Amino acid sequence: MNPTGLLAQMHEHHCAIAAYTADAEALISAADLDPAIVSNSRWRFVRTLTGYQLFKHQQIFDPVLQRGSQLDADAARQLKAECILISEAFRSYIAKWSTSGIVGREDEYRSDAKAMILRVRRHIVRERRGIEALLSPSLQAA
């Protein structure tokens, strides 16, 4: 596990998520919401977050759970649990709007989308701190 490389990859994922959320905010702020464009945007968000989730679970959390100290494993387990919780909330959000559509409910959609964007951003900030703390002993040992 190369902590410097992992942090760089995490930063790349975070930049992609930040770019997506900025684009999404602009999209939902538009006077008219095109349902097809909104749907495509949501699925882009799914792909972006899924790629990040696979990376952090496979490259950070699982290796620390298998080979880290008890303290580090506990921290990784907590981070992974928090990730799973927000993933479930995100899946519910996607399911709701994929099945019901936004036509006639644009204001409700905007509100839900803004709330999800904010929740993801807050999660990323907390998680970044946790992952940096988790990897910092490895950086010092390198």
From TrEMBL:
<protein>
    <submittedName>
        <fullName>Uncharacterized protein</fullName>
    </submittedName>
</protein>
